[in-house]
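TOKENISED FOLD:
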Amino acid sequence: MRGIIATLATVWRIASPYFWSEDRWPGRILLAAVIAIELTIVGITVLLNSWNANFYNALQNKDWNAFVYQLGYFTILAAVFVGLAVYQLYLNQWLQIRWRRWLTRHYLDEWLAGANHYRMQLYGEAADNPDQRIAEDVTSFVSSTLSISIQLLSSLVTLFSFMVILWNLSAAAPLHLFGIDYNIPGYLLWAALIYAVIGTALTHLIGRPLIALNFQQQRYEADFRFNLVRVRENAEQIALLEGEAAERDRLLMRFGNVVSNWLAIMSRQKKLTFFTATYSQAAVVFPFIMVSPAYFAGAMQLGGLMQTANAFGRVQDALSIFVTLYRSLADWRAVIERLDGFDRSVVSAQALAVTPPVVEVTPGDGQAIIITIKDLAVKLPTGAPLIAARDLTIGAGEHVLVTGPSGSGKSTFFRALAGIWPFGSGAVHVPKGARVMMLPQRPYFPIAPLAAAVAYPLEPDSADNAAIGDLIAAAGLPGLVPRLEEEAHWNRMLSLGEQQRLGIARALLLKPDYLFLDEATASLDEAAEAAVYKLLQERLPGTTIVSIGHRSTLAAFHRRRLNVEREAEGSRLSEGTLAPAE
């Protein structure tokens, strides 16, 4: 019971916000319409139960007029039933897409807000495959929640509707055994209840492992798919290293997890299907076995027999809903657990950014136009010290070069300045309203027309294509200017050097007040790198430029140096002297 209550609480937490959102009234109206139609359909099944008695009595009595009348009555009920079923499906699907749209936006907002997606990655597998959770699990949650909820409601209403009918039929046709009538109040109802309880208990006992197995299957499938995508995105490096055999083995190993878990699901579903199929087939004749003695004793007509069997079947189906839906419930439970895990990871990532000790990045006081760093101690996620900077300032218009050994924490220092690395302590004060841009060694370009890719994260139409073309040409890629409207996967099509040139064009377009270059020209030769820095100085004369680099030639383009020195525990960032360019 605790597990059921916890699951229902999770479902309510995930589902209810939509029905209180800005789209709540269309959602509520559609849900009410779907429920009303389902209740009406249940009402029609009650009418059809009475029709069963009249129709089969007409057949037994060979009453032609009654037979024709019952056929006409059935036609009307069937036509109404078909119309309701069609519109219930239509309205259900309409509600599904509106609910899914809202949930998808909600999860995207939570995932992408304030570098949350980046901090969640620092947890490793705590929120694996967010793409699957947003794209697939949201869809499954919406459709399964509606389907299962409506079926449970229908079963509940059907149960109470036919319980009365079955109770009354038990009185009209008492249990008849060996020529003796036994007046057991509602014996048909109790028989249906006992049958369903036994079936439910055995189904849960046999099928319970499916919940964990389905959860693992989705995880293994997503992991296999993710690694296939990685091979596609890194095809050049794999080909150059002749790593195809190694990748094949790694992919087959992950696919082996898919296969072995699938075999476990097959084995468990075989056992579950064996029982549920037997249970369903026995349910067809069980009501006739219960009521046939009264029929053969002449206590009821054929119509009463058929009505009783139909009512018994309805009650038994309603009570056996758990048996009928077990596989769906197992899949649904796995989806709920994955979305709940995603929610918990989002909350943890949000808390990570604000729970002390953290690196605080805040607007500076007054009219200060410098970046101030106070007692900054950047750490690894394990808590180990990485790099420290006690008291540093970076003034407006300065050109600063950050140097030091590889792996000493320079790039993570930049991440802390950008406010996305929460591990550590200290404060970074950035001038109010200052535009800060971080340009990594491998810039990101969305799959979009080239002009929109360079203008990212601006809106595609916010910059003039001609101006973007001039900047691309100035960055040393005039051959790409005619392709401004071409949509492509630019990170895959272009060399790293070309991508870095496009990154420089993006910086020229955005005109930041503070530009941080994390080895953003490392793939260019020295002459090209020098041309890029001269271009930055000419086009962005008021921009503060802070560069991470290893080449001595960079000294000519910077007037100040910060050196990373390794210490017993971590590294320390301090003032250094610029060596003259060779």
User: Anything to note?
Assistant: The two ends are 76 Å apart (CA to CA).
